Protein: Methyltransferase
Organism: Halococcus salifodinae DSM 8989
Amino acid sequence: MKVPCVRVAREDGERTREALAERDLLDHDHEITVAEGWLYAPIVDPDAIPEEYTIEERDVPDRETQTMPADLLGFDPSYERLGDIVLLREDDTERARQVANAVMDSSIPTKTVLNRASKVEGEFRTREWDVLAGESTETVHREYGYAFALDVATVYFSPRLATERHRVVQQAAADERIVDMFAGVGPFAIPFAGRGAAVIAVDRNPVAIEYLRENVRRNDVDERVEAIEGDVREVATEIEDGVDRLVMNLPHSADQFLDTAIDLAGEDCVLHYYDIQHENDPYGPGERAIRAAAEEYEVTVETRHTVRSYAPHELNVCLDVRLRA
């Protein structure tokens, strides 16, 4: 039986598979195949495929049934995958171990299962983990064609923000100069550089900066990313000339860094400002703070975007703001 497939060069296969999977467009009932240098990825909705891809009807084999944790447990557990690590958020210790055992016995390629043991806290926004299976908290996570080495015990990283990062990265042009003020291991900075932008990536966490430098090399963007360890408020004086784009992904306290952002901004600059606020007024506090800090600029809010629900009645939001001198 012929099914619609996206056809791409084999070397672009993994990046394409990740992009289609992120949009829930992969047909999981049929196998991805390779023939004569082309990779064929079965899809479920041809009309939703971006125009950049070629669609071709092709005979592909049915996919063998995989054993998932729900098949072994009798209920559908909640978990996140980060590279070959599976992350749980279970309050009951016995249930957590039961889920971990099912994950390890399932078809999911997993080397470690971790359960959250604390909230995100501390200067570097890390959390404690209970290791339920395996040993290492280090992994390599792949996202929209890029690979990020990281250790979940020592750096902050959320796989749930992949779509949001992609949304922002797609706005950047190749000739831009960008500052990522809280760069982490590089999930914004490296894709920006992959689009041809020149990126200055700053973070206070020395472990995150080491992973960032490793990831810059891993993704072949060495010449376009400068990694700086330190508080962006202190290193901003080292960044000369105004920049075209700023990312402020520190939602609990980004407002404390707005004066620095304004100092870094060029005559025409886009600011991606992340915030967490009550659902009754999720955008107002951030917008008022930006306007107060940017008195010398014409401020235009181009996008008010809800990223996700953060807690009961609280939203994680982003303001895409253009500053014109």
Remarks:
- The radius of gyration is 21 Å.
